[in-house]
Specification:
20% helix, 1 helix, alpha+beta, 4-stranded antiparallel sheet, 114 residues
Length: 114
Amino acid sequence: MRQSVTSVLAALLVFAGLSSAHAQEQLTVKVPFSFVVNSSTLPAGTYRVRQTFFHQQKSLLLNGENTSASVLATTFDDSIRGDRLVFRRYGERYFLTDVATPSGNLHFSRRDRK
C-alpha cells in the first residue's frame, strides 16, 4: 500500500513539473503593423505570447509594450507545432489567424469583417 501511494505521489510531482515547464513556454515576436484578433485591434510592437493556462490549450495571452490581450482560439490542433504567428491581410487590415506553439496550433476565426 505504501509503495503505491509513493508511486502516485511521484507521478503527481512529475506531472506538476511538466505543467510548470509547459506554462513557461512563450514566444516573443515583433509585429510591424497593427492587427486584429477576436475583434480587438492591437498596435504594432513587440509581444510575448504564451498560453494562459496549461489545462486551457485554446487560451493565449499577448503581452505588448503598452497593451495586452487574452484571447480564445476557435480551434486547437496538436498535430501542428512550431513557434510562429500567421496573419492574413484583408484590405489595409491584418488579422491574426494562427499561432503555432510547441504544444500545437491555435486558430482564430476572423470575426471582424468591416
